[in-house]
């Protein structure tokens, strides 16, 4: 699940997909969210990533990485809830928020040239 948590009531454009599934482009008002269902791969390589756009430019992050998110202690398992903020994405966990800064190393080189 991806939720718009931008300040000032900004609308956000979101495009989420995996190698096999395209969730499509969505325009989220403040606090609106999108979610989808899928089955993780038997091989452990399921990956969903999203592009976010508001104001100038765009940001990108992996919203579900099976190897990372199925970890018994640190993962969000089958329900990953992300808050998208100006400073970076925040993953809601049982013990609070894990927030990250938008950085260039969050960009996957294979998708840098892709546009929303």
TrEMBL record:
UniProt-listed InterPro entries: Self-incomp_S1
Keyword Secreted: yes
One GO-annotated biological process of the protein: rejection of self pollen
Lineage, broadest ranks: Eukaryota, Viridiplantae, Streptophyta, Embryophyta, Tracheophyta
Keywords attached to this entry: Secreted, Self-incompatibility, Signal
Cellular component GO terms, alphabetical: extracellular region
Major place of residence: secreted
Location in or out of the cell: Secreted
Protein name: S-protein homolog
One protein family per Pfam: Self-incomp_S1
Family: Belongs to the plant self-incompatibility (S1) protein family.
